[in-house]
Amino acid sequence: MNEKVSKFAAGSGAPPSGTEKSCVPAEVRDLTKTYGAVTAVDRISFTLVEGTTVALLGGNGAGKTTTIAMLLGLVVPSSGEVRVFGEDVSRHRDRVAHRMNFQSPYVDLPARLTVKQNLTVYAGLYGIANAAERIAYIAQDLQIAPLLDRATGKLSAGQKTRVGLAKALLNAPDLLLLDEPTASLDPDTADWIRHKLKDYAESRGATLLLASHNMAEVERLADRVILLDQGRIIEDETPGALIATYGRETLEEVFLDVVRGRARAESGRAEGERKAS
Amino acid sequence: MSTARDRTEGAVPIVLVANGFGASLRRIGALLERYMFLLRSSGIRLLELIYWPFLQMLTWGFLQTYLAETKSPVAQAAGVLIGSVLLWDILFRSKIGFSTTFIEEMWARNLGNLLISPLRPFELVAALSLWSVIRLSVSMIPVAFAAYLIFGFNLLDLGLALAAFFAVLVLTSWSLGLISAGVILRYGLGAEELAWSLAFLLLPICCVYYPVSVLPDWLQPIALALPPTHVFEGMRAILLEHRFDANDLWWALGLNAVYLVIGYVVFSRFLVSARVNGTLLQLGE
């Protein structure tokens, strides 16, 4: 049974806000997604608190991307509920879409268009009236101004990630969803991206939800970690509390314990024995 | 009502126009701009738009010339074959314009970005429809002009009926485009062939090059239930018998309204089905 309900939720276990509009960035209640006999997400519940960065951690197939896709309205839940800023995204995504954005290296921007053209199109789609000014600002901020007239398809992976981030920050989203934002980047570029994300979250008070396999990234960015395994929430803690609970030294060790099926007590005992010896 | 929201991020206030008719038009405009950028990015694409219809027109134009020399009374009627091929190309090119523009987003792995943006499905459909007409104009105006220069066939000789024919054919192409886009959304690029072949399904039944009376009795009601059939029958009536039946075209427009509704319902249902089945997560090559 997946009874674990986030202790970070405002009013844990309380029913979702119903028709009353909420400023809570996201509330997920008993969310389940099945594809035939396969359960990708299994009755998970959590609430994203405004201004926090939350990491979804888990092995391949743990349900991270499906969860994010349901928050974005790309996938309809089999049961349960997803509310973003108080709106049920399965039915009223259009009411909140302009307050969200998403970045993933697995979703491209049109390769033939220049960076500036792509950003102009997305500024239009997000309803940004002062598009030219906003693009100029964000290009400066993310150091992509020299790339603006280049075809997006001809950029390096690091440059594409920065451009993807520019698109994701165009509308200054209150809720930013990220799927492995630094996948396949060199350490320097990845570090730069993390710095920018942290800077954005802090300066704007935005809420970030990121799915990642990179433990250093999660430790650096996340206020809170939701560990998923086979579609279920196994843990929902701050990174420090998780490390302490498992008696480990890094989040990576905790992650390995979880994906290899070792329970808290077992890993704590093993750690105690290791220290004793 | 349009709602504007001033927000500050860094040094630049962001003016968001998120809801209302104006915001909707802005999003449709943004997509049209995207398609225009794409067309401008490749001269080959632009050339390709004209290349095939031009070859079609040349082939049928020469055939028409040959038949005229054989004293065939039907073929001698001015421009029946060229008229047929030009009108068929309006239907076919408009359908292709709709479908390939949609598929382009999947090739570019951009559909996910579009579908998480504030863009609404009907705005996507509106942009695809408008763009199909723009593409069609780029494609057909030079070819129709070439038909006049090379074979002396003036499409404008069809008079006001031409506008009605054009409307019927374009509306039919949108219905077909909606159905194929929906199927591709649901089943992925494996169903891409549908974008090219669906219009050809109509080719023998909607009597592009021959009258409805040629068809077997049981097939004739089916042919008459298709709006393009009325266009090709109408064109032959004008060119061969010098008469124009407006009622026939009203009937075709009415049929189109039904097919458009069906097309949009099919597209919407497949979009919902794609969201349920998670196929929007795996879109791309």
Structure description:
- The complex is a heterodimer of chains A (277) and B (285).
- Chain A has one domain (26-237): P-loop containing nucleotide triphosphate hydrolases (Rossmann fold), CATH 3.40.50.300.
- Chain A is 37% helix and 22% strand.
- Chain A is built from ten helices and ten strands.
- A six-stranded mixed beta sheet of chain A has the order 6-7-8-3-9-10, sandwiched between helices. A four-stranded antiparallel beta sheet of chain A has the order 2-1-4-5.
- In chain A, helix 6 (187-204) links the parallel strand 7 (175-179) and strand 8 (207-211).
- In chain A, helix 3 (115-125) packs across helix 4 (131-141) and helix 8 crosses helix 9 (251-259).
- Residues 1-20 of chain A have low confidence and may be disordered.
- Chain B has 285 residues and is mainly alpha-helical.
- Chain B has one domain.
- In chain B, strands 1-2 form a two-stranded antiparallel sheet.
- In chain B, strand 1 and strand 2 form a beta hairpin.
- In chain B, helix 7 (160-187) crosses helix 8 and helix 7 packs parallel to helix 11.
- The longest helix of chain B is centred in the C-terminal third of the chain and has 32 residues, at 246-277.
- Chain B starts with a strand and ends in an 8-residue tail after the last helix.
- The model of chain B has no long low-confidence stretch (mean pLDDT 84).
- The chains are: A alpha/beta (277), B mainly alpha (285).
- At the A-B interface, helix 1, strand 6, helix 3 and helix 4 of A face strand 1, strand 2, helix 1, helix 5 and helix 11 of B.
